[in-house]
Amino acid sequence: MIETELKITLDSEGEARLRRHPALAHLRLAPRRTQILRSVYYDTPEHALAAQGIALRLRQVGRRWVQTVKRRGESAHGLFANLEVECAAPGGRLVLDGPDPEGVFGAIDAAAGTAALSPVFETRVRRTTERLRAPEGGEVELAIDAGEIRAGEAVTPIREAELELVEGAVGELYGIARTLFPRAPVRFSLENKSARGYRLARGEAEPPVRPRNARVPDYAASATVESVARDIFRDCLAQIAQNMVVIAESDDPEGPHQIRVGLRRLRTAFAIFGPSLGKAALAPLAREAQRLGQVVGPLRDIDVLAGEIVAEAVESGLDAAAREALLGCLAARGAEVRRGVRRTLAGPEAAGFLFDLGRLIEGRGWLAPSDYSQTERLAAPVGGLAGDLLDARLRRVRRRGRGIRKLDTEALHVLRKDLKKLRYAADTFAPIYPDAKVATYVKELKSLQDSFGHLNDAAMAAEALTGPEAPGRDDGDVQRGVGWVLGTLTVRAGQQRPDLFARWDRLRAARPFWS
Questions:
Q1: Residue 73 dihedral angles phi and psi, to the nearest 5°
Q2: DSSP 396
Q3: More confident call, 229 vs 330
Q4: Do the domains 2-201 and 225-509 sit in the same CATH topology, yes or no?
Q5: How confident is the model at residue 133 (pLDDT cuts 50, 70, 90)?
Q6: Domain 225-509 coded CATH 3.40.50.2300
């Protein structure tokens, strides 16, 4: 059978909160059950089964042993759908022959060859199981696991929740999760226990959570519009969710930057695919993505202001007292903004957004029974639409850029935002065009964006350093530093305007890679 699970990593506080969640009493279909589970995973010395996406384990439940074979299937951020085959394993011995309708014994034999199978690692967990009624009438099993993985002398802890679909649509998992996990950041599990066990057995450390960039999936021009949209949405969800964790756990400025990129990518993807999928289903999430972007934006701006713009400007000759006073004020302001962003991103709106987005994606929430032409639009090859969609973005950019040498700062800012949307659209459809053509065009696009970025930095710095919430308004040293920085940036922006116009002319003359 296909086992579909949504896995969420917990800390001790989150585990305790989940166990006593009041909603469990209302959703419970059967009494809560607690078991001690010991699972031993087998493979060859070279881990040949793992290389083929096969996990083979013996699990002891009381005095009974059960063998499970899992074959890797489709996975998204925290969601795993694997083929699972179970059978009794009397005496805790492997069963490698017999009826094989799913072909798992044959797959094990082919992968292992003549190599012997032996224990590689084991897990020992205390599992609490709940059978829950899903919002739309389906059934979900919640398992709360706390324990450890052991590989020889090496040990790593396990603390996670698994929501397994028993009956109903996959979207039910996200509906239940939305109820049970009202706080963000949501730490979707990026690996299952098997993958973590193999890493432990190889002597590799658990990787820290790092900022996540966009990863455009590879696909062919013949892929359907729906499948491409789904994969792009999935990547945006992964980028947003992981960088929420980064913001919560560190001061890394790349976290705010990448979450804002992810939110903008998502809104651009909604706009691109909305006519095919149905704009109404996407609109609420697009609005929430915009709101979250506005929440994170000030943090990204202060990070850039303190860590890049001001730091670079003051190196050009500002005296030490003014430099230290200004950077100290910006650091204090940045810490204040970061605390506010963390509070907002820990709230129910941010958590709900992630689960609603997951439910939309995995539950095909854009389907509209009354839209009889939707099926045809969803099944259309994406290659037939990509050129027209990119043309529409390019026309908008060219319209915004008319008379660019006479545009004021606000108009240039609007043009810059449309250039970003064109860039995200170009990245989205790049897999179906020749690499060389894409690289040449995107290089010109990025070069122009860089020039706009310098002008935007100057405008942003002026607003942040002279506005109502400007730091150190009554401090002479700070204000001397502000004057130096703004003067430096103004001169630099003026010097760069001719370069911006030249790059704009080159982009207008460049042949789009999709034409």
A1: -120, -150
A2: H
A3: 229
A4: no
A5: very high
A6: no
Q: Specify whether the CB–CB gap between 299 and 333 falls below 8 A.
A: no
User: Residue for token digits 């100290």?
Assistant: 328
Q: At what angle do helices 254-277 and 409-429 cross, to 10 degrees?
A: 70
Integer Rg of the chain from CA: 27
- pTM, entire model: 0.93
- Whole-number pLDDT of residue 379: 96
Grade residue 166 by pLDDT with cuts at 50, 70 and 90: very high
Q: Alpha carbon of 255 to those of 247, 265, 297, 384: distances in Å?
A: 6, 15, 11, 36
Phi, psi of 155 (to 5 degrees): -140, 140
Q: Is 67 helix (H, G, I), strand (E, B) or coil?
A: strand
Structure tokens at 180: 């049970």
22-51: pLDDT as tens digits: 999 999 999 999 999 999 999 999 999 999
Q: What is the pLDDT of residue 80?
A: 81
Query: Please, are residues 130 and 75 in contact by the beta-carbon 8 Å criterion?
Result: no
Architecture of the 2-201 domain? Beta Barrel (2.40)
- Structure letter (DSSP) for residue 467: S
Residue 95 to residues 67, 109, 143: CA-CA distances in angstroms?
7, 12, 26
What is the per-residue pLDDT for 321? 85
Please, what is the Cα angle at 395 between 398 and 514, to 5 degrees?
Answer: 115
| Burial of 423 from C-beta contacts in 10 A (0-12 / 13-18 / 19+) | buried
Domain boundaries, the chain: 2-201, 225-509
**Phi/psi of residue 404, nearest 5 degrees:** -60, -30
Tokens of 175: 């509906």
Rounded CA-CA distance 301/467 in Å is 14
User: Which two structure tokens, joined as six digits, stand for 487?
Assistant: 């003067």
Residue type, 383: G
Task: Determine the Cα–Cα distance for residues 202 and 52; give it in Å rounded to an integer.
Answer: 17
Q: Please report, for residues 66, 86, 93, 95, 123, the alpha-carbon distance to residue 90 in angstroms, rounded to integers and kept in the order given.
A: 8, 13, 6, 9, 20
